[in-house]
Amino acid sequence: MASLKIRSLLKLNLRFLLDYEFLRDGRYTNVASGQTFYDGSDMSRLICDTNADDILYGLQDGQVWQSAFRNWVYESGVVLNDAIYIRDMDLPTICSGVYVSGTFYATDPSHPEYNAGVSHHIDWTHGRIIFDTPISVDSVVQAPFAYKHIRVAFDRDFNRQRQKGFLESKFTTNPLTSNMLVYPSGGAYPFPASFIEINGRRWKPGGYEMGNRSLIGADTVTVHIYTLDELTFDDVADIMSYQARKGIPLVDFNLAPMPLSGLYHEKSPNYIAYQDLLKNIRLAVPNAKNGYGQTVMGQMFFDSVDTILDDPLDDFERGRVTFTVETYHIMPNSPIGINTGTFDFKGGTENI
After folding, report:
1. Are 318 and 225 in contact (CB under 8 A)?
2. According to DSSP H, which parts of 143-183 are helical?
3. Helix-strand-coil split of the chain, %, nearest 5
4. What distance in Å separates the CA atoms of residue 130 and residue 121, rounded to the nearest whole number?
5. What DSSP designation does 32 have?
6. Is the peptide bond before 184 cis (omega within 30 degrees of 0)?
């Protein structure tokens, strides 16, 4: 697999940073098994997706069970900000299994309540449970979880959104989703949502000093915000604006594990919480020259933050937060661009 370059790494870092900041601000809702909505419906109830037996997806009726909510919280160890502590808000519930007709079955095979006959996967991104083998479509399937209020995505999804706006008008629908290889798939993306776009970059050299190979990238970033009301837009924009003048480590996801992986968007078996990755954890790296690598490759510095409120479109509010992110890279030694060492020249060795 080709290595991720700076633009991709910057996008990933911004995405995980925003996800984490929204959670720290309490932008999630816990749903306990059996918890009811105001209309008396069971918020924890999962519905069997009987369209999942399409030949394109290779799944059978009784395998895919979908929640009314996307974007389940998978992040562990979230540190809430002081204002949330004052409100005495519970930490997000991390789903650990599923209830089938009243009996709990854990997801982790090492859990004492794991049952190989009811083994399953949690699709955190799309709020689904996918069983390895079908269960009865008449089963009552429930799960305790927390879902995120604000979706964070990239400009590709934003461009799709511009073609067709979509409103999540009630809590009992989980719309067709994008970037999927298994059912369901589509382009709809419910609000509130934020979309990260990198508009341009310029490079500038760092200070010239003995041994300094610094290269500073200055990226212009726009985060497009869509919400169903003005106050939510203001809050989302402020959370992003509060990043101004912050310096945040740039995580190298060529070495650090991606939190979700695989066809089902499961939690990676090598999962490390985002806030821990920022501590520059030392990792064993197979085939590396020195046998290890570290999770941080540089520093992000936020500057010049502006908030723009655009004219409302249809029934929702929209706007942008733009800022400059300067990235300070720890440049690795490589055969290209080094200014010390040796190389073969006409059959001999020359110093450079």
Report:
1. yes
2. 155-163
3. 15, 35, 50
4. 5
5. -
6. yes
Measured in whole angstroms, the distance separating CA 342 from the mean position of its chain's CA atoms is 43
Residues 131 and 182 in one domain: no
Nearest CA among 150, 146, 325 for reference residue 235: 150
* Closest C-alpha among 280, 277, 324, 329 to residue 20: 277
Tokens of 185: 């798939």
In terms of domains, do 235 and 332 share one? Answer: yes
Cβ atoms 254, 294 nearer than 8 A: no
pTM, two decimal places = 0.83
Joined together, the tokens standing for residue 42 give 């069971």
3-state secondary structure of 86: helix
CB 197 within 8 A of CB 224: yes
Give the closest residue to 240 by CA, choosing from 25, 12, 11, 10: 25
Full residue range of the structural domain in which residue 48 is found: 28-148
State both tokens at 311: 């004219």
User: Can you list the alpha helix ranges (DSSP code H) found in 210-342?
Assistant: 230-241, 274-277
Question: Cα(274)–Cα(278) distance, rounded to whole angstroms?
Answer: 7
Q: Please tell me whether residues 35 and 21 are part of one structural domain.
A: no
Residue pLDDT tens, the chain, 352 long? 558 888 899 999 999 999 999 999 999 999 999 998 877 888 899 988 877 666 556 788 899 898 888 889 999 999 988 876 667 788 999 999 999 999 999 999 999 999 999 999 999 988 999 999 999 999 999 999 999 999 898 877 666 555 554 444 334 445 444 444 343 433 455 678 899 999 888 776 655 445 555 668 888 999 999 888 888 889 889 888 888 888 899 999 999 999 998 888 999 999 999 999 999 999 987 766 677 888 998 888 888 788 888 887 767 788 999 988 888 776 554 444 434 433 333 444 433 3
Q: Are 3 and 45 in a shared domain?
A: no
Same domain, 277 and 188: yes
